[in-house]
Design goal:
The complex is a heterotrimer of chains A (137), B (110) and C (248). By secondary structure, chain A is mainly alpha-helical. Chain A is built from four helices and two strands. Chain A has a two-stranded antiparallel sheet with strand order 1-2. Chain B has one domain: 3 helical TM bundles of succinate and fumarate reductases (Up-down Bundle), CATH 1.20.1300.10. Chain B contains three helices and no strands. Chain B is elongated and about 50 Å long. Chain C is an alpha+beta fold and 248 residues long. Chain C folds into two domains: 101 residues, Beta-grasp domain (Ubiquitin-like (UB roll)); 135 residues, Alpha-helical ferredoxin (Fumarate Reductase Iron-sulfur Protein, Chain B, domain 2, Orthogonal Bundle), CATH 1.10.1060.10. Chain C is 34% helix and 13% strand. In chain C, strands 2-1-5-3-4 form a five-stranded mixed beta sheet. Chain C starts with a strand and ends in a 6-residue tail after the last helix. The chains are: A mainly alpha (137), B mainly alpha (110), C alpha+beta (248). Chains in contact: A-B, A-C, B-C. The interface between A and B is large, with 51 and 47 residues.
Chain lengths: 137, 110, 248
């Protein structure tokens, strides 16, 4: 017996507004998470521009970096850092869902996986900062 | 049997870029955005001549570009630009590929 | 004795007569143990018999009574009036679906999508009955059991912005159902599902908003099923590209 389909000519099709992501906090936070990729990419491109200065000698590299002392650039980096940290946290939360980890037969609870990732991130960040301080001076 | 779909490739690159960005970007923002400008750490850039550092920088800069490209493409499509998916995909992934090539070129020059 | 009341603002739509849905306010008795479904049944029995909506078990297992309650997809048999009182409650049909009448939506697209993932055990070679049943360890059962709990209530589709924007998207419940069979140790049908699951309208259109999992009344976690399916698809794709001579 085939199912009875409704008369399509009388159906009402609701439209989704373009600003759908402003209607709920969870949708807004999702959009912020997506936007974090823009700020991360922007930062890395600017970083690349600074590295490029080294082709003109170390003086050019240091001179380029002077501009980052201005309040405008400090504010920019505050925004970038906020988005970068938000990406880091949401990424760890997501990867715990995508790849559940096991010890032997038992699954590690997702909260623990997130904390493990955060711990690893702290270690990696410390190592990079230490290496930077040792060699860039 | 391979899926003719190339989307898994972009998703793998997106994921790799996401991991790199998650673990490495915050500390670099802290170092370059605050520590060096405030004079807490000196930065001459001399370490960038080492090949290992260049490799690290290549991964650090190029992979998150694919992360951005994939995420940004979907964001644009999900805010109403669905009809422009093909040209937008070309622009986003194309920019990431161009960025990769430029990054490699810059790092080989210094 | 003055009885406490609460106001429900309910969507009304008469096909062929109304151009667009409108809202009608009803004042119902406020009872601490009533759910929104009780209020709707009171409206239909005592106030306005023309109100049309779906419901059945009234205890959260049939999946029939899904609607938007204050903009959130909910089973109306599980939404207590006391959680909203004394404020007014907006009751609308499930989002992202065409409306047939009042609070009833057209679920034919959803049903088509469920069928498209071939939700049954697929075997390359059938095991004759004489050889006995398929055995599964508790671990093998745990791999997919959670994803069998879906009651097809469509709350996840109402919560998913991707489905709202791009209705060709396979959607959370259908992908979770496909995943449920793909990871069932008795099943050998991954290849047969790949065309649907691995297409752009399959797992790849999902941007992991995660709202589907948030609203699921049976804790199925469709978002996890989708992301794990992406990982499985990507792994398979990488293998086929890097090891083209290997069997899949």
């Amino acid at each position: 017996m085939s199912a009875v389909r409704p008369d399509k000519s009388k159906l009402y099709y609701p439209k989704m507004p373009s600003a759908w992501w402003l209607r709920r906090l969870s949708y807004f936070l999702f959009m912020m998470r997506e936007l974090s990729s823009v700020f991360i990419a922007l930062f890395l491109v600017i970083y690349l521009a600074q590295i490029h200065q080294l082709t003109k000698g170390p003086g050019a590299y240091v001179a380029f970096a002077q501009k980052f002392q201005s309040p405008g650039w400090i504010a920019f980096h505050v925004v970038v850092l906020a988005f970068a940290l938000y990406h880091t946290y949401t990424w760890f939360a997501s990867s715990a869902v995508v790849m559940p980890l096991k010890i032997g037969d038992r699954f590690i609870p997702q909260n623990a996986v997130v904390l493990l990732n955060i711990a690893a991130w702290v270690v990696v960040s410390t190592v990079i900062a230490a290496l930077f301080m040792m060699f860039q001076g | 049997m391979t899926t003719k779909n190339i989307e898994p490739l972009w998703w793998v690159l997106f994921s790799a870029g996401g991991v790199v960005a998650a673990f490495l970007v915050p500390i670099h923002v802290i170092l370059f955005g605050f520590a060096v400008p405030f004079g807490l750490i000196a930065d001459t850039g001399r370490i960038y001549s080492h090949w290992l550092v260049k490799l690290y920088l290549f991964v650090l800069i190029s992979l998150p570009l694919y992360h951005w490209a994939h995420r940004f493409l979907f964001t644009l499509v999900d805010t109403g630009l669905k009809g422009l998916r093909r040209p937008l995909a070309f622009l986003c992934y194309g920019t990431a590929i161009a960025g990769t090539l430029i990054t490699a070129w810059v790092l080989l020059q210094i | 004795m003055a009885e406490e009341t609460i106001t429900l603002n309910v969507t009304r739509y008469r096909p062929g007569e109304d151009r667009a849905p409108r809202t009608q306010a009803y004042s119902v008795p406020y009872r601490k143990d009533w759910v929104v479904l009780d209020a709707l049944n009171h409206i239909k029995d005592q106030i306005d018999g023309t109100l049309t909506y779906r419901w059945s078990c009234r205890m959260g297992v049939c999946g029939s009574c899904g609607m938007m309650v204050n903009g959130v997809p909910k089973l109306t048999c599980a939404a207590f009036l006391r959680d909203y009182y004394p404020k007014e409650i907006q009751v609308e049909p499930l989002a992202n679906f065409p409306i047939i009448r009042d609070l009833v939506i057209d679920m034919s697209d959803f049903l088509d999508k469920l069928k498209s993932v071939k939700p049954w055990i697929i075997r390359k070679t059938e095991k004759p009955t004489a050889q006995g049943e398929y055995l599964q360890t508790p671990a093998q059962l745990e791999a997919y059991k959670q994803f069998t709990q879906c009651i097809n209530c469509m709350l996840c589709y109402a919560a998913c912005p991707v489905y709202g924007l791009e209705p060709e998207f396979l959607g959370p419940a259908a992908i979770a159902l496909g995943y449920r069979y793909n990871v069932d140790s008795r099943d050998e049908g991954n290849e047969q599902r790949r065309g649907v699951m691995g297409s752009h309208e399959g797992v790849w259109q999902c941007t992991f908003v995660g709202e589907c999992t948030e609203v699921c009344p049976k804790h199925v976690d469709p978002a996890a099923a989708i992301q794990r399916s992406k990982l499985d698809e990507a792994t398979g794709w990488l293998k086929s590209v890097l090891l083209p001579w290997g069997g899949r």
